[in-house]
Write a structure and sequence with these properties.
Layout (H helix, E strand, L loop, with lengths): L33 E7 L18 H9 L1 E7 L4 H10 L3 H4 L20 H7 L3 E6 L12 H4 L4 E5 L2 E2 L2 E2 L7 E4 L2 E4 L6 H16 L4 E6 L27 H26 L6 E7 L8 E4 L2 E4 L7 H4 E2 L1 E4 L7 E8 L3 H8 L14 H5 L9 E5 L2 E5 L3 E4 L4 E3 L5 H4 L3 E2 L6 H20 L10
Parallel strand pairs: 1-9, 1-10, 2-15, 3-4, 3-9
Antiparallel strand pairs: 2-13, 2-14, 4-7, 5-6, 7-8, 10-14, 11-12, 16-17, 17-18, 18-19, 19-20
């Protein structure tokens, strides 16, 4: 396990450890496995049927969950850019300085000093590709950003072009390996991003590859994708607004794309040599109301709440991963050291994330004891029961039901003082990273 900030090992101290070279994960194939990391845009855990949604149709992701591992307690930051830097770098936002999303007027991009899993896998001999949404700098100014961060091949939504925000969906603006494509209203961006990756698998099926697919879906605007405009509304009731219905169709389209990737692996006989991780970058958009068995849930994007930070996390590797549900904590900062361990890659630097590959394979290992989160000026630490914020507010979050999990109930009893003190010590050390680290000046929170 390679990481800087380890979970709180006692009530009195927080160990900050130097990186050390991990051995290949127990249970992993000794040969170099392929790795695919898929991250949906603005998808909280409630967006998938396998997490309890009663209105969204996600058969491929449900199959992935049934055949692999579904994590009940996986967390991201509440907004786009901080999670995107965190998942690729294995570093907390208050260490990199990316604690808020980059805006159209920000003259900032992901600096070369921040290493990513693209670098690690490229240097280990992997073919590397990325497609979808970057949003870590302007593409018309810096079209080769993915190349600079370890990806050999890319097809990315431009985000802004010629000073104006471009479309990610219909009439998309896409940079593919430095070439600009401007589509028509009959062209649908997600079809292009996914086709690029499917072609990449065709081309590189004989060598180990890493694919990172930060999807454009299911972010607003909520417009029906092609071929789903007339989708039967068998699960949609009259009390749902048009945005939620369109969002549901987009979720199904996203699921269909994941199914195509799984089918492509099967076509080439690669299912048993490929690990897929599927997750989301933050909670669902606040305008979307999802239905769970015991409650309706408004999306929490942008808020330091359970709805804003709890995301789906599925791991699929037929024949290697024993199917099941894991209740251990997982933060997306753990993705880099985890997939590096699975691939037998020894990291040459310190990272904040933990190698949690043992949670994939059901083997022994050190579990994450707390999730640490920073966003703009806010901080929290969360264990399996409580969440403590920088202002001293303690939330009691039992997870026996969705209604309890998302209730945001404050723990006011003096019975919880020891928990407040225990978590407070962890949070204090975590918050000190920003003051001590010069890299935190890269990107100031708004």
């Amino acid at each position: 396990m390679t990481h800087i900030l380890r979970a709180h090992l006692s009530a009195l101290c927080l160990a900050v450890l130097l990186a050390w070279a991990p051995d290949p994960a127990a249970g992993a194939d000794p040969a170099q496995p392929n790795v695919i990391v898929i991250m949906a845009d603005d998808l909280g855990a409630e967006g998938l049927a396998c997490y309890g949604s009663t209105i969204y149709t996600t058969p491929n992701l449900d199959r992935m969950a049934a055949q692999g591992v579904r994590f009940n307690n996986a967390y991201a930051t509440p907004l786009c850019t901080p999670t995107r830097v965190m998942i690729m770098s294995g570093l907390y936002p208050n260490r990199t300085g990316f604690k808020a999303s980059i805006g159209k007027d920000d003259e900032v991009r992901l600096p070369a000093s921040i290493r990513t899993f693209g670098h690690d896998f490229h240097n280990a001999g992997y073919a590397t590709a990325i497609a979808g949404k970057w949003q870590l700098g302007q593409f018309d100014e810096y079209p080769d950003q993915p190349i600079q961060h370890g990806f050999d091949d890319y097809s990315m939504w431009t985000w802004f072009y010629d000073g104006k925000k471009s479309s990610r969906y219909y009439s998309p603006h896409i940079y593919s390996n430095s070439k600009l494509f401007i589509g028509t209203d009959k062209d649908y961006g997600p079809d292009y991003y996914s086709k690029h990756l499917l072609d990449f698998i065709d081309t590189n099926r004989g060598k180990p590859f890493l694919i990172y697919y930060p999807m454009a879906l299911v972010h607003s605007p909520f417009k029906h994708p092609p071929s789903l405009e007339k989708l039967a509304r068998t699960k949609y009731t009259d009390d749902l607004d048009k945005s939620t219905v369109a969002f549901g169709h987009m979720v199904t389209y996203m699921d269909d794309i994941v199914g195509k990737i799984m089918a492509k692996l099967k076509e080439h006989g690669l299912e048993k040599s490929t690990l897929i991780l599927f997750t989301g970058d933050n909670g669902t958009h606040a305008s979307i109301t999802s239905k769970l068995p015991d409650m309706d849930l408004n999306g929490g994007k942008g808020s330091m709440t359970e709805a804003g930070t709890r995301v789906p996390l599925l791991a699929w590797w037929p024949g290697k991963i024993k199917p099941g549900v894991r209740d251990e904590l997982f933060c997306l900062v753990d993705v880099l050291p985890t997939i590096a361990s699975v691939a037998g890659i020894r990291l040459d630097r310190e990272v904040d994330g933990m190698d949690l590959s043992h949670n994939l394979f059901g083997t022994a290992g050190e579990d994450r004891q707390q999730v640490l989160m920073s966003f703009k000026k806010g901080y929290f630490v969360r264990d399996r029961r409580f969440r403590l914020h920088e202002n001293g507010t303690l939330y009691d979050i039992p997870v026996s039901s969705d209604k309890e999990r998302y209730s945001e109930a404050k723990a006011g009893s003096e019975d919880f003082n020891s928990d407040r003190e225990r978590l407070g010590a962890v949070l204090k050390d975590f918050m000190a990273i920003e003051q001590a680290n010069t890299n935190s000046k890269i990107r100031k929170a708004k």
